[in-house]
Here is the input.
Amino acid sequence: MWRKQSEGKPSSSATPGAPSAFAPPSFAPAEKSAGSPSPSKPASAMPPAPVPSPEAAILTQGIRIRGELTGKADLFIDGDVEGSVRLGDSRLTIGPSGHVKADIEAREIYIRGNVQGNLRGRERITLGNSCHVKGDLESPRIAIEDGAQFKGRVEMGPAADAREHQIKRTAPAITSPGASSSSTDSTPTSVPVEASAKK
Amino acid sequence: MNWMGGKSRLGAVATPVASKTRGTASAVMPPTSVTKSNQKSESFRLSNGLKDFLWLISDVENGRLLDLGQVSQATLNFFIERGFRVTTDDMLRSWKEFRGAVEEKQRNAPPSDFNEPLSPEEIAQHFLQNSLQYPDDEFNAVLVWDIFDRLDAGLLSQVANRLHEIVHPGGAVLALFHSKTPERAYRYRIVDNQTIEIVPIGPAGTHMRIFQNREILNLFSRFRSAKTFVGRDQLREGLFIK
Here is the structure.
């Protein structure tokens, strides 16, 4: 079930289109970002194509997990997960066959499958064009490709970032009350947002 | 919250519920261009409705906006950069999925006296029990786009009433209505303070009706004021203020 991708046997490059359970995810957005940008989406703001880290652990199609997933490695989910997913400083990718019913926390979250739950990305959340997401998004950067289906609240920008740092600070020790309230109640202002990768 | 910024901005918009269609309004720039086969045709529409809508909410601090169309990065960015918290709820898609599921369930149900098919009104009622469930007065602004053109008749008044409940007093709703049957279905993005990008997304199979101006005003009669604009592209914009 859980493997490092480097240990995987069949090579993905041999079967680019096949939905092999062992194949590392093939990410389409690379070609999408080459599309002509619309006036509302400057080309310079396009996000880089999400590339799975070679060390990513893979939860393959057909596997179902209920419970809490935590870890420090990058993770690719193409199966079913119900519970919660907390990856701290790692990247989570949910493949097109992935079905996740969980609140998710990770450094980067990239979704092409089906998710029900609130997402918190410490650095970035990307909703791919084939995704179906119900839940709230919170991240300093959020990229949404055309065709993504999303229902929920969005919070991004410095406020989301500040809140994340505040949570990290408050966890081990005491924090000044003033700092706490100001960052919690602040609203996003300028947003380092990435434009949609697909046109 | 200084919604109107001193002197009422509504005064410039309309007096209570008796707005009249202004023929001025929106220019189209350029007209919808159809490009070669598999290229998207896009148009950018100068929108007086959007301009007024944004002006009305320009003084809102920590505002909340509800977008009932398909999620769009451009629109999202536009409002978040202005300090809004944005909620996206693709209502038309939710409705289609819900209706499809109900119809399939009814088809597969064994015939029995206890399984009478639901009427369209009952289906709409069930849908709204789980849709648009937001606290009263939650939003300062709502983008409805053209979903009223494409919703089933049983939903129209109920959705309009629900919108009235979830909009904050003084809040604004921007809706679009086609004055002639469109050739295609569209999605909409906000480009800048007075420009909407209109992107065709497929055949206009889901377009249900053409509203007359009076019907629009009746539909939103609970709102304190209403104003409509008609563009040369036959797209009517409605701005409704609670």
Observations:
- Strands of chain B lie at 43-46, 64-67, 85-89, 139-145, 167-178, 184-192, 195-203, 225-230, 235-241.
